Amino acid sequence: MKKKRLFVIICSVLILALTATGVFAAKKDDKVPTRVKVIAQSCTAAGLCLTVIDLDQNEIVILFYASLPGSPLRTKLELVNIIRTGMFVDPEEQVAIIGQDAPFEEEKAAFQDPGKQHMPQTPQIPQGPYSPHSPFGF
């Protein structure tokens, strides 16, 4: 009987911990910029990161959106972190940053073909027992 009660208590605590998403969400006193210029975006398996310029203060702000534990849909993203960098820029002079996200499973095959890659190939340094680049020095 005690084991059953302990099991129920542990399960209840676990369910409450997984559904208590308010702890992970951004605080209400964090000022979310309303007028922004997006300069960079990055997407990972964990979530979406936007780097923006707050047009009211000309400050670079990083917004991180993620699916929270206990969320019924993994595709539902919520704002979980706001980072005000303290870096101020002129929005007219700041250009967008062009980057590339890590490939997802379905895109990995496309990256195996060197002709489809977006980044230049690095030259291969020959490795062998008599190579000048050998770790043994001969």
Can you walk through the features of this model?
By secondary structure, the chain is α+β, with helices and mostly antiparallel strands. It has a domain at 23-99. Helices cover 17% and strands 25% of the residues. The protein contains 2 helices and 4 strands, in the order H-E-E-E-E-H. Strands 1-2-3-4 form a 4-stranded antiparallel beta sheet, with no helix packed on it. Strand 2 and strand 3 form a beta hairpin. The longest helix has 18 residues, at 2-19. Residues 21-25 have low confidence and may be disordered.
Q: What profile does the largest beta sheet have?
A: 4 strands, antiparallel
**Alpha-beta classification:** alpha+beta
Q: Level of helix content?
A: 10-25%
Would you report the number of β strands? Answer: 4
Terminal CA distance: 73 Å
How many helices? The count is 2
Spatial order of strands in the largest sheet: 1-2-3-4
Keywords summarizing the entry:
138 residues; alpha+beta; four-stranded antiparallel beta sheet; 2 helices; 4 strands
Draw up the topology in text.
Blueprint: H1 2-19, E1 36-43, E2 47-54, E3 59-66, E4 78-88, H2 108-112
Antiparallel strand pairs: 1-2, 2-3, 3-4
In short:
By secondary structure, the protein is α+β, with helices and mostly antiparallel strands.
